[in-house]
Amino acid sequence: MAKSKFEYVRDFEADDTCLPNCWIVVRLDGRNFHRFSEQHEFKKPNDDRALHLMTKCAQTVMEELEDIAIAYGQSDEYSFVFKKKSRWFKRRASKFMTHVVSQFASSYVFYWKDYFKDQQLLYPPGFDARIVLYPSNQNLKDYLSWRQADCHINNLYNTVFWMLVQRSGLTPVQAQDRLQGTLAGDKNEILFSEFNINYNNEPLMYRKGTVLVWQKVNEVTTKKIKLPKEAEEKEVEVTRTRTKVVPLHCDIIGDQFWEEYPEILAEDS
Amino acid sequence: MAKSKFEYVRDFEADDTCLPNCWIVVRLDGRNFHRFSEQHEFKKPNDDRALHLMTKCAQTVMEELEDIAIAYGQSDEYSFVFKKKSRWFKRRASKFMTHVVSQFASSYVFYWKDYFKDQQLLYPPGFDARIVLYPSNQNLKDYLSWRQADCHINNLYNTVFWMLVQRSGLTPVQAQDRLQGTLAGDKNEILFSEFNINYNNEPLMYRKGTVLVWQKVNEVTTKKIKLPKEAEEKEVEVTRTRTKVVPLHCDIIGDQFWEEYPEILAEDS
Amino acid sequence: MAKSKFEYVRDFEADDTCLPNCWIVVRLDGRNFHRFSEQHEFKKPNDDRALHLMTKCAQTVMEELEDIAIAYGQSDEYSFVFKKKSRWFKRRASKFMTHVVSQFASSYVFYWKDYFKDQQLLYPPGFDARIVLYPSNQNLKDYLSWRQADCHINNLYNTVFWMLVQRSGLTPVQAQDRLQGTLAGDKNEILFSEFNINYNNEPLMYRKGTVLVWQKVNEVTTKKIKLPKEAEEKEVEVTRTRTKVVPLHCDIIGDQFWEEYPEILAEDS
Amino acid sequence: MAKSKFEYVRDFEADDTCLPNCWIVVRLDGRNFHRFSEQHEFKKPNDDRALHLMTKCAQTVMEELEDIAIAYGQSDEYSFVFKKKSRWFKRRASKFMTHVVSQFASSYVFYWKDYFKDQQLLYPPGFDARIVLYPSNQNLKDYLSWRQADCHINNLYNTVFWMLVQRSGLTPVQAQDRLQGTLAGDKNEILFSEFNINYNNEPLMYRKGTVLVWQKVNEVTTKKIKLPKEAEEKEVEVTRTRTKVVPLHCDIIGDQFWEEYPEILAEDS
What we know:
Four copies of one chain form a homotetramer. The first copy, chain A, is an alpha+beta fold. Chain A has a single domain (10-208), classed as tRNA(His) guanylyltransferase (Thg1) (Alpha-Beta Plaits).
């Protein structure tokens, strides 16, 4: 059979092993989600259905794939952090990227109707992903801080922008001009004085994004058992400790989060 | 704002530009599709619904992304060939891989019901992908030949194997033992003498897989027009030439295919 | 022994295999050769001793290492082209780069006195090198053309510049100002009208650089032999064909060179 | 000028930036030094001239290049450790490798006669180098421990081997057979009982290799000065503190060395 004659082409595959002992971050972004959000009538500046769907997909990724220690998401992006010591797929970068992004994409369509109900999905959405290595814990924390700071900046801007458009009747261009050059303080002031909104009271999910961590949770189930010496079945409560992916909407820039969840950065994690 | 303090983490992103003037192949595989096909009751050895769904997804990928010259699929895998001269996303490997795999994965769920009807999709499937560069046209042809030779070998084996199981009542282990060490000729003989099957009459899609190429097609539509001097509208036929992705089930190992489609390998394509 | 405990560090070595079926070019440059040439009183604009030493080192590299098909040098740089099919050191990029640059550097000191005679070498010079892959023959020819075009541009500039300094007594800054914005034609004109120099009569080595190719040469040696039937030894001339590295100073941008040396680009070379 | 037409070939150069915040180790090895050492009559098992020349070259590398924090050498190899935070040549791997190996190679020839006196250098030697990244301090210490453990194993073996050959008159093959399967204890015992050698009294340089570190040293020089009010010149001693590369032959596997030289691993080094 001619197989052997062609098989030399396998030698053209390059090795893309990730450097050992580094955190492996895969960050995923929606493709053309500006257009996608308009066509699917996302509420502006934040659509709870869309944000919850993103988080559902990210949870699926964490549960289906291996060695993800923490994930962080905001808007149409999600970052997945694989453990430093992970040996999953021999640390091949292409495996990490494509498994994350394909699981996320198929989940997005699969779970769409659970969140968007009657709002039909018009076409299958695309995502891209990249991979970045971080050698130290501080580098990793700074990466996540960078994304959360980005969330804050964008959400503050979008909150004011859409108020100006939706409530003050400005065109998008006018709103953009109005915000040109303003600092965070200015934007807070506009929100407060013109729209009576205290930005700090906006929902945490909008301001902080979503952190996914593994947590031990106690699940109580009832079970029927029959003891040897008794004639009848008996109902007992069984408490089982399971590790589940749990969403949080908290600050991860300061130290408090990392002190509460020391296992995330633990060397032997 | 603290943004700048963290932004140094962007410098950790590595450049993954593909070498210019090489064919870029992205090959995608289903994750755990053995289990997936059992849970979704795929017909063995070939399930037309599954194969047509794969091809529908691959067509979507070719139409949504840019610069794909040809694609080839069989079983739960598909290879996409980007043009040598493609400058899409600055030839960044991660972009090619993740856009292909995410578009494919979301399409798989999106179009599932069009092919599987009442058969419910139980969970969102995963895929992985890798990227390989081929410097010469001969290398690329050999790559595609390798995949088609693989299709032939696997399909011949699977055809006999499932006959032995489904018709002769052998257990999978018994069928495997029976085929141990047999050559192609032996398998053809078993098919013919025991099951009266001439392998060469099996459907081309099973034996050759699916090739996706761009083809000019003429679309005839009727249109109502009103000429200035006439009072009434008039129906006219309008013929429009469009370029569409068309599936073929032909040999791509020999020269004939490449002579029929010279534009695929054309330098300036 | 503690060896095994530490040996995990070997896993941190990354694979740097070059893509098969591509030309591998290693280009080497002198480190701080501006300063080096002043301290060793190189003749300006071209020092024959320095150019011949560079070529001697490059010949040594070609003879000591494997699979180098052609080399091209000018000024303080040299490019070495390894055959497309080379399997030397499993095509590991670091091996190619470091073997070339170290053999060149040690040869530079070793052969220095053969070219520079009484001019003492003051300190051991440094070099750097980079590696580039070229998939097609055209790409490779264009690479070499790029270097030869660069040689021409620099040499024309330097020839005029040093004439202005050495003969017209301009300071370097004045000479630079004078040449600011001039085209090739202008420079030729200055050379001709002010210094009576026809640039095209300048030595080819300066204008074209040096090409190193393998050539069959006949070496005639005399040997004493004693024929069985004769009493005395007899002197005979023996002609042996050897393949040697030969320097040329010719154009490699046009087709003629490649037609004369078809074996360089031959597929099975 | 045709330059622009060819310049596209520069786009084929791949980016080889080293991941930030990692130790960059360049390890260099002699090429065919088995043959080289025989042809230059190196004393076996250790030739002081050769070892001191290696160290002289390594010192030159450390002084000429930038950001090398520590180096370690044994036999015909040397490892150079660049600081985690180094931004030298934008952390391009090829620059690190080729500058190290070329400076080392040219120094080897340049300083040869200072160590080998009448022993002529017969031909220019070659070296190769590789580059490895280590994310954590522990990884780096383990790397250096690996090399020092390797030095110990090889030197113990070579010491016994050459005793058996030189003193007991065994052939190399007989000596090899004799040592087959022996443990460290066995080799120590042979040395002691047959040759009255206590391995622990062998020179540290042979057993531990050579560590190069930066050290502040006080240099006292005498200088003639003439004070304004005095008629005669006067000799004064001037003490100047300089940072120099100093060779040590000590254990670097245990903690003591790292406690004595904390600045090597210091974050801001």
